[in-house]
Amino acid sequence: MAKAFIILSLTYLLLGLTFGVIGSLQYVFPSLLTESLAFHKSRPLHVYLVISWLFTAAQGLLYYFIPRVAGRSLYWQQGTWIHFALQAGVSLSIITGFFMGYFGGREYLEFPPFYAFIIAISWLPLAINFFATIRPSLGIAPVYIWNWTIGIVFFFLTLAESYLWTLDFVMSNTVRDITIQWKALGSMVGSWNMLIYGCTLFLMEKLSGDKTIARNRTAFFFFFVGFVNLMFNWGHHTYAVPAAPWIATVSYVISMTELLIFGHIIYKWKQTLSNAMRNGKHLTHKLLFLADAWIFFNLALAIAISVPALNAYTHGTHITVAHAMGATIGINTMLIFASIVFIAKKDHANIFQKYSRTIRTGTLITNAALAIFWISLIGSGLVKISGQLNSESFAIIMKKSEMLFKWFAGSGIFIMIGLLLMIIPAIRVLSAKRPTPRAKRQELRIQHAEAIEKEMAE
Amino acid sequence: MQKTGLLFILLFAYFGYSAYVYTAGTDMSQPAQKREAMAGKQIFQDYNCIACHQVYGLGGYLGTDLTNAWSDKKRGEAYMRAILKSGGNRMPNFRFTDRQIEHLIAYFKYVDQSAVNNKP
Predict the structure, then answer these.
(1) What percent of chain A is modeled with pLDDT above 70?
(2) Contacts with A102 from chain B: Cβ below 8 Å
(3) Which of A102, A309, A407, A408 has the smallest number of CB atoms closer than 10 Å to its CB?
């Protein structure tokens, strides 16, 4: 069932990319599909599907990893089917609703509130399976159990919080409404990061065979830095909102704790690089290294735009989008694919071998295109800042950004091509039947040969 | 044990902070939101305007930021009415009724009056 979730998530990514490309082309060709699929439809389709990609992939990975961590099968097997059916049904209904113009009209969660209730119910089997199978004892648990626990709990909390607007107490006060919305969404991003980082830490433990990786003081120190940021860092989005000033101050101070993570990456850079050089031929390592590089660039950008003096200029520009795209494609997507490749290689080594080269090519194209995409978004943000400082009209700013929009739409197409080269092989491998005993023996031979090759290289 | 203790302290801080944000932290002196403005806000959501437009920087970037559009000399009420009536280069014509346009304008006026523009 875990693989069914991963395949479903890859389908979300495929569709999300399609609508993302359409949306980016609408920047270049303003009249493209204006009547049938205008930007107010293409964008929510893109956003909903890519957020679903991240959450559903994390759920699939959890369903795969939970029994392996606990050493027993899932507590409620049938629950996974209920989860899958609800998830797929809700998605189909939301997507159809968007095509028909049926919206809730809130940023990121643009579907009507009713669906949020079903989504919350659909997550219950995952929560039950996680807590009842692992039975986490946090005092002695490795850090990835902490990540997953917080990720699941905060998904429910932030989903509920993001619908507080349905209460008149919030809806009738725009400052409160906007502040709570930023708060809920900022922390919700933190919840999916927790789920994905948990999977990555488990993966790193498996790859290295070193159990201390997820149990030492450093691991927990950075977990708590991440957790504090999940809860309090959202406020840098609200500097322009006239709420109590110290909400911004708290957020600014918390944002600066990210410098600790940034400094740690720089400190470990030499080691990361030498590991990458040594294990570069292993796709999982390569994907982890690429995610690490994107963490570096995105963190630098995040810290910069958290400084109030800079945020006053960058807020409301494509620089914020660059940060979001760098994080979701460069970091989250690469980390998820690292886990997917690990599973594909472990369970279907024989078939995976056939597609390994294609996935490598896809990884290369995606990351090269993402670099151009990221730079062009920052560029259009800078054009907007310059235009605003010169009191130029919105139309003039858009006109001046045309070339950069072409670059970002063009590189978006290449991101899609690159990811297609990763998605389609991954679906093919994961949907293959379990290997026969003969094929299994062959897989073992391949793994054995690889192990010898690795040993010799070392 | 120390880690679990720290976790609970942080969770306690989070819930306390959330309660503050929900109440006193966002209870600043603002113009009262009239019924027309509330109706306008609902229309803004029903048509998913946030996909292209921003309010306080929240939303898409294909269209303009509407936080201070009502008092903006280059835009203002008459300009907004015209765009709402017939659409624009990038904006589809949503065929809003006159009543819907009134409500939307009331909402933009309310947002404008509640806003403190922090742009340099």
Answers:
(1) 94
(2) none
(3) A309
ipTM of the complex: 0.91
Query: Considering only residues 23 to 52 of chain B, which have any Cβ-Cβ distance to chain A shorter than 8 Å?
Result: 24-28, 30, 33, 38, 41, 44-52
Distance from CA of A144 to the nearest CA of B (A): 14
Chain B hits for A180, CB-CB cut-off 8 Å, are 21-22, 26
Average pLDDT of the residues in A358-380:
95
Which residue in B8, B9, B27, B62 has the most chain A C-beta atoms within 10 A of its own C-beta, making it the best mutation to test that interface?
Answer: B62
Contacts of B92 in chain A (CB under 8 A): 34-35, 38, 40
Q: What pLDDT is stored for residue B119 in this prediction?
A: 42
Q: At what angle do helices B76-86 and B98-114 cross, to 10 degrees?
A: 140
Please give the structure tokens belonging to residue A202. Answer: 């488990």
Q: Per the CB < 8 Å rule, is A181 touching B6?
A: no
pLDDT of residue A103: 93
- Say if B95 is an interface residue toward chain A (CB within 8 Å): no
Q: SS3 sequence, chain A?
A: CHHHHHHHHHHHHHHHHHHHHHHHHHHHCCCCCCCCCCHHHHHHHHHHHHHHHHHHHHHHHHHHHHHHHHCCCCCCHHHHHHHHHHHHHHHHHHHHHHHCCCCCCCCCCCCCHHHHHHHHHHHHHHHHHHHHHHCCCCCCCCHHHHHHHHHHHHHHHHHHHCCHHHCHHHHCCHHHHHHHHHHHHHHHHHHHHHHHHHHHHHHHHHHHCCHHHHCCHHHHHHHHHHHHHHHHHHHHHHCCCCCCHHHHHHHHHHHHCHHHHHHHHHHHHHHHHHHHHHHCCCHHHHHHHHHHHHHHHHHHHHHHHHCHHHHHHHCCCHHHHHHHHHHHHHHHHHHHHHHHHHHHHHHCHHHHHHHHHHHHHHHHHHHHHHHHHHHHHHHHHHHHHHHHHCCCCHHHHHHHCHHHHHHHHHHHHHHHHHHHHHHHHHHHHHCCCCCCHHHHHHHHHHHHHHHHHHHHHC
Model pLDDT, residue A439: 65
Confidence of residue A281 (pLDDT cuts 50, 70, 90): low
Q: Which of B45, B67, B110 sits opposite A106 (nearest CB)?
A: B45
Question: Could you tell me if B9 lies within 8 Å of chain A, comparing CB atoms?
Answer: no
User: In this complex, do B38 and A171 lie within 8 Å of one another by their Cβ atoms?
Assistant: yes
Enter the pTM of the model.
0.90
Residue A435 reports pLDDT greater than 70: no
- List the single best residue of B18, B58, B75 to mutate versus A (max A Cβ within 10 A): B58
